[in-house]
UniProtKB/TrEMBL annotation:
Keywords in alphabetical order: Membrane, Transmembrane, Transmembrane helix
One MF annotation (Gene Ontology) recorded for this entry: calcium channel activity
Protein's recorded name: Calcium load-activated calcium channel-like
KW Transmembrane helix (keyword) present: yes
Coiled-coil annotated spans: none
Cellular component GO terms, alphabetical: cytoplasm; endoplasmic reticulum membrane
Gene for this chain: LOC109015664
Listed transmembrane segments: 16-38, 74-95
Annotated source species: Juglans regia
Top-rank taxon, per record: Eukaryota
Isomerase as UniProt keyword: no
GO biological process assignments: endoplasmic reticulum calcium ion homeostasis; intracellular calcium ion homeostasis
Amino acid sequence: MALPQIFSSFKYSDSLIIVAISLCTVIVCEAISWPLIYRINSYKSRSSIDKAAKKLETMKTESLKESSRDLSLFKFKSGVVVALVLFVFFGLRVFTTTQRQL
């Protein structure tokens, strides 16, 4: 990796490497979120949001709990994808660091 060699002469080289890795991770996570969340027709459609708002007002406690569970499941799936990306990025960083030390 040429990146650590470039930053090795700077005083805050480790900090700059961490910031660069964080920025790369953010870009990858947003690139994953874009097709999984923002490109879905139900997300784009304003009328479906209005219908969902009206439906939410008329829901009773049980149906609200079901909707909350469904939303939590969807957020969990997104969180798993983000966690896997972070494990890969930081795992590669640790792997390359340990390879250099050997």
